[in-house]
Amino acid sequence: MKIIVIGAVAAGTSAAAKARRNNDYADIVIYEKDQDISYSGCGLPYYIGGKVPSIESLVPRDAGFFKAKYNIDIFTRHEVLKIDIYHKTLLVKNLVTGNTFKDVYDKLIISTGAHAFVPPIKGIHNANVFFLRNVQNAVAIKTFMQKHLPKTAVIVGSGFIGFEVMENLIDAGIKVILVERAGKLTPNLDEDMSKYLESILSKMEISIFKNSNVVEATNQGVLLDNGTLIPGEMIIIATGVKPNVSLAEDAGLILGTTGAIKVDEHMMTIDTDVYACGDCIETWSAVTKKPHYRPLGSTANKTGRICGDSITGGNMIYTGNLGTGIFKFFDLSIGSTGLSEAEAIKNGYDFLVSHNIKPNKPAYTGGREMIIKAIADKDTGKILGVQIIGYEGVDKRLDVFVTLITYGATVDELFNLDLGYAPPFSNTKDPIHYTGMILDNALNNGRDLITSETLKKKLNSEEVFEIIDTRIEQQYQDSHIPNAKNIPHSELRGRLSMLNKSAPIVTYCNKGVTGNATQNILINHGFKKVYNLSGGYEFFEATKEK
């Protein structure tokens, strides 16, 4: 059997290696149009910033390695121009010599990846404008920096790559301005969490332009559609990627609703002899089971391995993904998994949202706060999605939530998790435990929550309700929610007669704990409609429009 793979980065090489482990007799060939193979694309921003000292450490394997270890022939600088699925042939061009030739396959794996989305910006191909998609892109950026010593840069786009490159350029002594076309930062965060992130970045004196459409790139910077010139001697375009599907589409293979190649759980296309994997395929949500496009290195490796197994008679299947993503910005960590609130609305869920602000470990061991936004299905009690912004330990909590969502955990189960505890690592009750307690109380024990966004809308309406600030008087005097009454928690029982039992009441403190304690007292004394502000005043204030 002859297996041909198109593409030799994460998915393609994973597929070929797994196919070889299953079948030592197959003839396996990979064609790759670029010169680098099996590289760590996610490490490229850190090479630019000097944290990775040499590009070779991100490209640890070459064609010789795969030939010696796996008996796989990899031909770099060879572009597949056409796939003929009826005759099972490929037209291949040697990009070094210019010669073309045909090759024949029994089984074909398409792993053509994705390409950087190129927005319609005048001057986007100028010498000082860069994309970051492969090794040579990173080398070009680093070379420009070493040759021209730029003092300013503009990054267009606020996704993972945008933030990672920004950190590394700042580390290199370059003043960076971030430009985002949308009204919020980072596609993987909901608007409230994006505002919370922005409040942190403002304290770090990071310059951000939102709702800003770039129309031209010049040697001096970028020009917005409102005429504003944002200075930058170098410009990084980080506006996302699109799947490379032209080969597959021209061959007559079906694309999914997201525009990527449609495959089944075995990575098979509509042709039983053609499979696909990596950033060129459409996957699906493990929560909704609906198609989505999530081009991540982890997914590419996973789908590649399944593809190589399936094509050689194995029984591995793909079960979907949660779109889990995490990135760092200096000591800040930003992660998400599962459905966002916006996606939960789009998919018709009746859901509850909680915001939990807790330190990752005790203050005496250097603990720092993280905020966890969790979304739970009211009908089943299952967790649908989580977003976390914090510092040390965000990755640990995110991965626990990934596991919980994957196996259908309900909110009442979180408190009983026997998580690892010692002061250098956690508190006795972990932020995960608290998230479970908050959601369980709201879903099953009548301790209703109200989000900052909902409260802000109510403040602008004519609805009659009371707001109780449960903090001490000095905190209230310093700043408080409009129309709030200051009744410190310690004084509440003596002042219950001042409150209207028939009117809805919102309680709040700094982060939610004392607000919940006040809510408990009111409910115990016969108040029927009592809501605790999710995330407390800290989250309310951080997410206000600036």
**Structural shape:** globular
- The CATH superfamily of the largest domain bears the name FAD/NAD(P)-binding domain
The CATH topology of the largest domain corresponds to FAD/NAD(P)-binding domain
CATH architectural type of the largest domain: 3-Layer(bba) Sandwich
**What is the CATH C-level name of the largest domain?**
Alpha Beta
Please state the average pLDDT score: 95
Could you list the spans in which at least 5 consecutive residues all have pLDDT below 50?
A: none
Task: Quickly describe the structure.
With 546 residues, the protein is an alpha/beta fold. Helices cover 28% and strands 26% of the residues. The chain has four domains: 2-37 and 57-113 and 242-311, FAD/NAD(P)-binding domain (3-Layer(bba) Sandwich), CATH 3.50.50.60; 129-239, 3-Layer(bba) Sandwich (FAD/NAD(P)-binding domain); 325-444, FAD/NAD(P)-binding domain (3-Layer(bba) Sandwich), CATH 3.50.50.60; 448-542, 3-Layer(aba) Sandwich (Oxidized Rhodanese, domain 1), CATH 3.40.250.10.
Please supply descriptive tags for the structure shown above.
546 residues, FAD/NAD(P)-binding domain, 5-stranded parallel β-sheet, 28% helix, redox-active center, oxidoreductase activity, FAD/NAD-bd_sf
Describe the protein's topology.
Layout: E1 2-6, H1 10-22, E2 27-32, H2 44-48, H3 63-70, E3 73-76, E4 78-84, E5 89-94, E6 100-104, E7 107-110, E8 114-116, E9 129-131, H4 135-148, E10 152-156, H5 160-171, E11 175-179, H6 191-203, E12 207-209, E13 214-217, E14 221-224, E15 229-231, E16 234-237, E17 241-243, H7 246-250, E18 261-262, E19 274-276, E20 281-284, E21 291-292, H8 297-311, E22 325-329, E23 332-338, H9 341-346, E24 351-359, E25 369-377, E26 383-390, H10 394-406, H11 431-444, E27 448-450, H12 452-459, E28 466-469, H13 473-478, E29 485-486, E30 505-508, H14 513-524, E31 530-533, H15 536-542
Parallel strand pairs: 1-2, 1-7, 2-3, 7-19, 9-16, 10-11, 10-16, 11-12, 18-20, 27-31, 28-29, 28-30, 30-31
Antiparallel strand pairs: 4-5, 5-6, 8-17, 13-14, 14-15, 20-21, 22-23, 23-26, 24-25, 25-26
